[in-house]
Amino acid sequence: MPEKPTRLRTDAAHNRARILDVAKRTFETEGLDVSMSELARRAGLGVATVYRHFPTKDDLVAEAFAEPMAECAGMLDEALADPDPWRGFCRVIEEVCAMQARNHGFSAAIVTSLPDQARFAEFRDRALRGFVELIRRAQEAGALRADFAVSDLSLVLLANGGLRSGAGAAAPAASLRLAGYLLQSFRAETAAPLPPPAELPLDVSVL
């Protein structure tokens, strides 16, 4: 008799892993707009099975991006630990752009507010707080231009996000070059007056 519950648990774990695998690959290549019913079809499962494991799409997004979000927050922590704030700032811009170029859904996930996903929100907020602090330190060190604003991160993501559709397989290399161009323009010693910052919230669409 105990074999049946064990089998059911094994099947449930397999289905959950299958859903997550399909969601990760789909979000990476197509972004977050794919429906739950389409994800279920690609996983070869009924949509009710998907909802049984992930009652909302936010639950699935949070789980699918838990690892890269934790990596992003950890990367900010390492950048803040760097005694050279400019080097830390450059690393963050380069790595965030690279992650976005590899993963179509990453930029949308990092700026998406999922209020019911406490752990996901914790990593997201930690990363954003770290970025704000890194800006402050780099500006105080005289390395980052004084008019760089937090909303400029959205500009970076918007510009870099277009590379995936426009550059195709060359997107990672193009992203690295774009980040280099941008970082040169962010240097304080080469700064020239700019128009005022665009008030772009960090939940702006960046796909």
Automatic annotation (TrEMBL):
One matching Pfam family: TetR_C_43
Residues in HTH tetR-type domain copies: 13-72
Signal peptide: none
Binding region for DNA: 35-54
Keywords: DNA-binding, Transcription, Transcription regulation
UniProt cross-references to InterPro entries, sorted A to Z: DNA-bd_HTH_TetR-type_CS, Homeodomain-like_sf, HTH-type_TetR-like_transc_reg, HTH_TetR, Tet_transcr_reg_TetR-rel_C_sf, TetR_SbtR-like_C
PROSITE patterns according to UniProt: HTH_TETR_1 (PS01081), HTH_TETR_2 (PS50977)
Domain of life, per lineage: Bacteria
SUPFAM superfamilies given in the database record: Homeodomain-like, Tetracyclin repressor-like, C-terminal domain
Protein name: TetR/AcrR family transcriptional regulator
